Amino acid sequence: YQRRVHGEQMQRGEDTNPQFQHNAGNTETFAVDEDKPLVAKAGVGSHSMKSTNLEAAYNIYKVCIGIGILILPSVFKQTGWLLSFVLIGIFALICYYCMCLILKVSDRLRRNDLTLYDLGERFYGEQMSLMIKLCIVFIQGGTAIVYLAFVRDYLKAISCEIGIQSTCTHDTYSLLFAMLIILPLSLITNFHFFSYVSIVASVLQMVIFVVLSGHHVTRLGSFAALSIANPESLRFTIGNFIFVFEGVPTIMEIRRSMQTPSSLPSVLGKVYVFASLVCFIFALLGYWAFGNETSSIILFNYDLARPLFFSLVFGYMLIILLSFPIQFFPILECMQSSQKFKDYIRDHSQLLFFRFLFVLFFAFCAFFIQSLDLAVNFIGAFFAGPISFIFPVSLVLRCLIEIDYDPVSYTHLTLPTIYSV
């Protein structure tokens, strides 16, 4: 306001404050903006600090290929390899299509900075926004808890293999070791930093998958002995398929972090096709190699006493740990939209302490997780399902009614609507 008044005074030829004349060209804010988020949204900043399409593809790939792919061989065993193949293709297609619908709604409003819960509040009010926020918090928080539970189980397996009884029999020591790695990473508030981490982690992950798949090929059994389809087991496995391809909470962040946000649908489609192939090949070979002995987490089927498998599984554990902090960004953004959160957390030191408490809470919850595949199924079915199908269809319907009425467009929602039901 002062700069605008100064400009008007200069146009009228009036004298102005010399001290302000000296600072008139300063583009920095003169006071603290209480509405400014403590963690800058991804994409805010110079064009050079934003992610390229390749970096965005790596981030999307990391969202898809996480802990979920390690559970898929067990899911193939329970559901059958053919039915699982069909479900992977369907879920990948519908998740991709629903995310594109959300991006189109955001484009129709000419607002690239809106989140999913912002759209919910725009079309339905605060109740819908709160429901979406709760789903996002449960998905991201549940994923973080599953990550910690996986690291706990891995460290216990390693400890039992090498004879460390304290860690082998007590989960507390395993969780403490995991937190020593996670705590420093969870304090990083720059989303762009993880673009570089994702590139290194994705390359390492692909190397691990190739080596492990090669090992699977060497011990393939009878293909006829594999289960083809078992629909009765879907109540225990369908959430796992949703969990693998669910990415709405982070996809909005990734879009804001891109140099060219308009290219996201193309990048997203290519990554989903590649991720679907990786998931199917790895899961099928894993189930084919170990048969009915396939563990809920395929990594626990390997002989950890052998240096090769020990190093590969340890490398994948590090990838999981590096992916852990990414789960914080959607949670923090949901909370930062609340005025009560802003009233209590007013500076970065308080925010870092808050994140520290969050890690402790996640570790406490991970202590009670006994079955990773059932935990992932629960998260996918009850929280990722609404985020992936129900909320996008509901938002697009209201957008068609209020902004861009077109009866033909309703036919495009037929399959997602049936899938939501």
Describe this entry's structure for a reader.
Helices cover 71% and strands 0% of the residues. By secondary structure, it is mainly α. The longest helix is centred in the middle third of the chain and has 37 residues, at 126-162. It is globular and about 60 Å long.
What is the straight-line distance between the termini?
Answer: 52 Å
Low-confidence stretches: 15-46
Percentage of residues assigned to helices: over 70%
Order of SSEs: HHHHHHHHHHHHHHHHHHH
Quick one: how many beta strands? 0
The DSSP helix count reads 19
Average of the residue pLDDT scores: 75
Rg, Cα atoms, Å: 24 Å
Largest sheet: none
Beta-strand share of residues: under 5%
Q: What is the 3D form?
A: globular
Structural class: mainly alpha
Secondary structure layout:
Layout: H1 2-12, H2 18-23, H3 53-64, H4 68-79, H5 81-108, H6 116-123, H7 126-162, H8 165-169, H9 171-186, H10 193-218, H11 234-245, H12 248-256, H13 264-290, H14 307-323, H15 328-336, H16 339-344, H17 348-366, H18 372-402, H19 414-420
Keyword list:
421 residues; mainly alpha
